[in-house]
Design goal:
Layout: H1 20-36, E1 41-45, E2 52-53, E3 68-72, E4 75-84, E5 102-109, E6 115-120, E7 133-136, E8 151-154
């Protein structure tokens, strides 16, 4: 491969108006995280098509602006899953903590139309299936962080 030693500078700037949606997302996430401290889940409903987003987003796929906050249940349905962990790599013993697979599930919470991801605990890989019902496993003292939603358990 040939390396270039010269550098080129181009006049101009970053038009930040194109990135406005990223900053709007921060305000939506802030409200969502504040609700987590109280063990509440907030979704954002679109007035155009009725979709409920969790995590909230500033624009809907129908090009409307979701503007109605709705409380979402902490139960849901597994829509996809995968297994991961040290056991998946050749040459690592299949015993003890290194042999314990992590079960990562994509879930749609009841009352929402979008998927979120968490780790399924208290389940064996052979017991996991699409359509499986779950409940989020809240920490004893939620801190208002996304980590508060890290785990779920089978119903």
């Amino acid at each position: 491969m040939e390396y270039k030693n010269e550098t080129v500078s181009i006049e101009g700037g970053w038009p930040m108006e194109h990135w406005q949606w990223k900053f709007e997302s921060l305000a939506l996430i802030r409200k969502t995280l504040e609700a987590l401290r109280e063990k509440k889940l907030l979704g954002l409903k679109c007035p155009g098509c009725g979709l409920v987003y969790f995590m909230p987003k500033p624009y809907c796929r129908c090009l409307s602006i979701p503007d109605e906050w709705v409380e979402v249940k902490d139960t849901g349905t597994v829509t996809t899953y995968t297994f991961t962990g040290a056991w998946a790599y050749e040459g690592i013993a299949d015993e003890g903590p290194a042999g314990t697979p992590l079960i990562i599930v994509g879930i749609v919470l009841d009352g929402t139309d979008t998927m979120t991801v968490c780790t399924l605990s208290d389940a064996k890989p052979e017991d996991v299936s699409v359509g499986m019902r779950i409940r989020l496993q809240w920490p004893e003292n939620p801190e208002g962080k996304l980590e508060d939603l890290a785990y779920c358990v089978p119903l």
